[in-house]
Design goal:
The protein is of the alpha/beta class. The protein has one domain (about 5-210): Aldolase class I (TIM Barrel, Alpha-Beta Barrel), CATH 3.20.20.70. About 45% of the residues lie in helices and about 15% in strands. The protein contains ten helices and nine strands. Strand 1 (about 10-15), helix 2 and strand 2 (about 35-40) form a beta-alpha-beta unit. Helix 3 packs parallel to helix 4 and helix 4 packs parallel to helix 5 (about 90-100). It is globular, with a radius of gyration of 16 Å.
Amino acid sequence: MNVESFLQSRLICVAVIDQVDDAVPLTEALLAGGLNCIEVTFRTAGAAESIARIRKALPSAVVGAGTLLTPDQVKQAVDAGAQFGVSPGLSEAVSKAAHANNFPLFPGVITPTEVMQALELGWKHLKFFPAETFGGVNALKALSGPFGHTGVTFVPTGGITAATLPNYLAIPQVAAIGGSWMAEKKLVVAKDWAKITALTAEAMKVIAAAQAK
């Protein structure tokens, strides 16, 4: 899986799916709004099954596994057909498991020390999490400075909304944004696919406008 190719959409929908039957309709709603990338978080028992169902039903979607905390979860994600993995933090054990499976991983970082450790472990696409809690755009700009020449890129996630999206997209080192606002848990539980499609389309318009600048 070429990581750069799916980052071109500049947005990853971070989704918590409680009911496995919601996985495919949710992804269809995102696709209808113009977004082909979903990160299914391993915060629910049905995460692996959800990934497997999406991969089977919707081959045009790019499906990642989020909240990977252990090597075992990495294996579950790979076995389910996930095309990339995301972790909230930086774990050597998770990193080793990802490398062993040739599995693209976005480890979570928040400090310069963690960025250096991630580079040492062989990762250049890093999740900046939790973005808004730890200083948001200004913190990420400051963090990008010392590492600009290393090829590091960031996927900020955590508390970002449609309103703050353009501010993050304006940072050169930001490859994509991880967001959950277009598929909030309550919308998924209510099966409000039309609303999810509308919010996704709105976000994609913001991204198109930002890229046109």
